[in-house]
Amino acid sequence: MADDIEIDTGDLERRMDGAMNSLKTEFASLRTGRASASMLEPVQVDAYGQMTPINQVGTVNVPEPRMVTINVWDKGLVGKVEKAIRESGLGINPQLNGTIIMLPIPELNEERRKELTKVASQYAEHARVAVRNVRRDGMDKIKKAKADGMSEDDQKFWETEVQDLTDRFIKLVDDALEHKQAEIMQV
């Protein structure tokens, strides 16, 4: 196979890994009843004419297990930060104290826990779709290489490689989902 056509599985793996990293970020935003600064990562604030992450307009702290505070640097943005948190779907009611926004994290009831596991499932499905799209791109490259003269044996080899890579990442997504759902349902 020295002068045969090769498929860049490293690129496919990087792209699938990107889908996993995206899933981990989305999972971090799902609250599990404990305060975490990472739960605010997906929240964007309309600051200075563009959407900006909260951690770029203020300092995010976790002073106690059930409280997140944001010390907003610019007084004029306090209302916008509060509005962004209210509209984020996190289910947290911000409380203002000057330029400090306090986010008390309420206990999760059973209904809310089940809702969050469904959201986690949706995030995992998006990651699976992203992985499958990368797989499709890889298979398309193999078909193109076949048309450019790749042997049938090489085609089968590369298809198996891409499928094994896909199966491995789908399993990682499923394992991450199972872990996150167990964490959410833990009382």
Structure report:
By secondary structure, the chain is α+β, with helices and mostly antiparallel strands. The chain has helices at residues 9-29, 78-86, 110-147, 152-185; strands spanning 44-47, 50-53, 58-64, 67-72, 95-97, 100-104. A four-stranded antiparallel sheet has the order 3-4-6-5, with helices on one face. The longest helix has 38 residues, at 110-147. The N and C termini lie far apart (56 Å).
Essential attributes:
187 residues, alpha+beta, Gyrase A, domain 2, 2 domains, four-stranded antiparallel sheet, 4 helices
- Elements, N to C (H/E): HEEEEHEEHH
Q: Which second-level CATH architecture of the largest domain applies? A: Orthogonal Bundle
The unreliable regions are none
Question: What structural class results from the helix and strand content?
Answer: alpha+beta
This entry's quaternary arrangement is single chain
| Helix percentage | 40-55%
In DSSP terms (H or I, runs of 4 or more residues), the helix count works out at 4
What is the end-to-end distance? 56 Å
Instruction: Give the CATH superfamily of the largest domain.
Output: Ribosome-recycling factor
The fraction of residues assigned to DSSP E strands is: 15-25%
Number of strands: 6
Measured on Cα atoms, how large is the radius of gyration?
22 Å
User: What is the residue-mean pLDDT, rounded to a whole number?
Assistant: 86
* Spatial strand order of the main sheet: 3-4-6-5
CATH class of the largest domain: Mainly Alpha
The backbone outline, from C-alpha atoms, is: elongated
